[in-house]
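User: I'm writing a tutorial on reading structure tokens. Could you give me a worked example: one chain, its sequence, then its tokens, then a sentence or two explaining what the tokens reveal?
Assistant: Sure. Here is the example chain.
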Amino acid sequence: MRKLVNAGIVTFLFLFTTVAFGQSEEANYLKFDYVKVDQDKVYDYISYMRNTWIPLYQEQVKNGTIDSWSLYRVFTPGGAAGKYNFVVITSAASLEPYESMRPRDILSMSQKNQQEIRSMMSKANSMRTLMYTEFWKTINKIDVEGTSPHPSKYMMIDFMNVVPGKEYDYQMLEDEIAKPIHQERKDKNRMAGWELFTIITPAGEEYGYNFATGNYFEELENVEFGFTEDVIQNALPGTDIPELFDTIFSTRSLVHSQVWELVERVD
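And here are its predicted structure tokens:
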């Protein structure tokens, strides 16, 4: 049986990988805003964002305050029962820009007067409800020079709950095992990109998840092609597949998986 790595190498990789992730110059700090829009206002909301807010975020990208801004519509699960149906992801080089990136701050920086600000905020609040916000950090990805999130049409995001004390193991497995497999999928044009995120806040065991992976596709049909045997063997020849999955499942559980469709992006 082919062993994935021996114990001594594992210890070294845990330390090396953690340091490498922590010092990555390519890391992006992401703000996820989960938004609920009434079903009968969905297309009005998209039009409103395109005509009113996107030009304001374009200015923030242009002046270097943020790296990108993306509006996603939740493709699955769909329908009115979901807690949210849109997700706004803002990307920056650090957490500092988010101190002044609230919608009202953006309007103030655009030199809107107080009456205009009140009117625009009232309009926004009548169309959507901000359900909650999370901060994430990108710690690994295939396209190291790109800005997270990857600008593909579809993003499958897998929210993971990593066992306490297994964080280093999980990061090593994603880097040494999952990443080469995803690269193989990309080489076969079954995937456009892959990224690994760790949550900054909220946090804690009761929150439910602490890591996530972003799997990116240009065609929806490729979402179904995951870790197939041929992809695994091409990426990692000789791998004992049952042992591989036992090792993966021992470090984390998949809390839930969703597919988001990119509506607009500014970068």
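What the tokens reveal: The longest strand covers residues 252-266. Residues 42-62 form the longest helix (21 residues).
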